[in-house]
Amino acid sequence: MTVVPHAVTAGREMVEAAMRAAVERLDPRMRRVAAYHFGWVEADGSAPRGPSGGKALRPAMALLSGRAAGADMARVVPAAVAVEFVHAFSLLHDDVMDNDRMRRHRPAAWTVFGVPAAILAGDALLALAEEVLLDRGTTGAHRAARHIAATTRKLIAGQALDLGFETRTDVSLDECTVMSMDKTAALFACSCSIGAVLAEAPNRLALALSGFGEDLGLAFQLVDDLLGIWGQPEVTGKPVLNDLRSRKKSLPVTAALGAGTPASTRLALLYSQPDPLTEPQLVEAAALIEEAGGRAWAESAADARIAAAEARLAEADIPGDVREEFLAVARFVTHRDN
Amino acid sequence: MTVVPHAVTAGREMVEAAMRAAVERLDPRMRRVAAYHFGWVEADGSAPRGPSGGKALRPAMALLSGRAAGADMARVVPAAVAVEFVHAFSLLHDDVMDNDRMRRHRPAAWTVFGVPAAILAGDALLALAEEVLLDRGTTGAHRAARHIAATTRKLIAGQALDLGFETRTDVSLDECTVMSMDKTAALFACSCSIGAVLAEAPNRLALALSGFGEDLGLAFQLVDDLLGIWGQPEVTGKPVLNDLRSRKKSLPVTAALGAGTPASTRLALLYSQPDPLTEPQLVEAAALIEEAGGRAWAESAADARIAAAEARLAEADIPGDVREEFLAVARFVTHRDN
């Protein structure tokens, strides 16, 4: 397990306090779902029995991007809150759409509060993401809110494409990459630049940071896809071989299916059978993906993306300590185990 | 049938053109769901076979509120687009949550494209509502976007409360009014003032228009609730006695249940039985609501709200022709049959 970088822990309390204050604006029902999702309470409203909640990478990056622009951390907290709310919105809705029952070692919100409450809580957090930014009357807040809205549009396009993949057998690696760019990398790009946008930094800086975030986000997704197949359930908080059970056309799977090897053909056969895959079939599918080169491809693609991200960061005119912390986040993303 | 007021038809083409241009930004899958929802295409993507789409009251009021502030209609079109997108977002999601299969004489979007696509399309339109406003860099656009975000929060609180009513037998008329205020009147209040906000009118004017919209919105909901029981399905586009079938605790139902008459008791008994209500039971429930005074109460409450709305409008310093058109919309709202 890699050590959590300083940037991720540094502003955590400040961001969480702001998140809690914003969630207080919601009506009691939505507040409860949101508090459960963020790991602040258990399902019955009692104090959490253990540490939970997400990795909070996105708010950390948002704060870093503010510091990259020379802004005081406190000034860009709304940007960190906004990206974490958009992330939460997408998780709450995706779990409903993908029928995923586990999230961060706990039952997904929809299994606890019902589908309608999970949909509504996602809606509420999306609207609240805009509101916390627009509460500030500055030009930077205006631009940051627009950044969030445009990013949300991409994120939705990615999820729509992903859902479309479910019924298709001809998904190309290019399409799958476009999907991951929209579904994951877009919010990383936004997170890595929104602090700078809020702080009214020059466009050039925001673009460089956004480019860094985009490459980092794709690397993150590649690692996520690998963990979705070969991750330890007790660490990831999701059921073993979860992505294969739902026959997700993730990047390593798509690479394996398109590799043209005998293992690719057998994998395609397994993925196209109508009945749910048995446990032995899931294990076989994972082995076939590895045999067809999907695992090795994803691992080297993640490394390449991190290298590209680092190159993009090298172009950005930012303080040395901020650069170091961004790089630590990048290393954390590729070496994490959950 | 009441004649559609001039205000509703006047800016319709301009608003629809702007809506279509904004929807073009969405990815093809979401674009298709949105186009179907707005009645621009049939489910298979072909040209619509007949007139459909909604009444477009909210965009009409948004344009009027811009004119109330002396703004050119073209300048406040984004406000009209934004409120119609938020309305569409809420309908797309509510139909999923409420399991409503019909909308505007056609199958609801989720029955055609599936639940995930309907959820995502709603999400996309909510984000797009913010984006069309924030595309303008003005202070008015910033405030209007914030207005939309805060209104969405209320709308969600109302829907959450409404969903909570389903499992309760002790809903008071006060609670039901609060629910309708949030679920319906908030977006009416926003629609009647957002054009003025976008045009940077004085706060006082925006508040007066918002107050008018709030009363008008509650009147609208009361009429909606009456139509949900006694409306003609061929005119409303929804199944006969739809609200009673799902045992909605709408305003007339709640008034009847709380009236303390023998009919109230029989209605409570019907509403609490576990099996789906049969057609004769639905007809009986409607008769009991009328007998318990729920219908008469809702009719007179709607009239009282319209009178209050008119009084609020009288306080607003706006051009005479705009006032006349607002009043025409108010009359249309109470005398409509769909």
Automatic annotation (TrEMBL), chains A, B:
Gene3D superfamilies: Farnesyl Diphosphate Synthase. GO terms for molecular function: metal ion binding; prenyltransferase activity. It holds the Pfam family polyprenyl_synt. InterPro entries: Isoprenoid_synthase_dom_sf, Polyprenyl_synt, Polyprenyl_synt_CS. GO terms for biological process: isoprenoid biosynthetic process. Keywords: Magnesium, Metal-binding, Transferase. CDD domains: Trans_IPPS_HT (cd00685). The keyword 4Fe-4S does not apply. Belongs to the FPP/GGPP synthase family. This is Polyprenyl synthetase. It comes from Catenulispora acidiphila (strain DSM 44928 / JCM 14897 / NBRC 102108 / NRRL B-24433 / ID139908). The lineage of its organism: Bacteria, Bacillati, Actinomycetota, Actinomycetes, Catenulisporales.
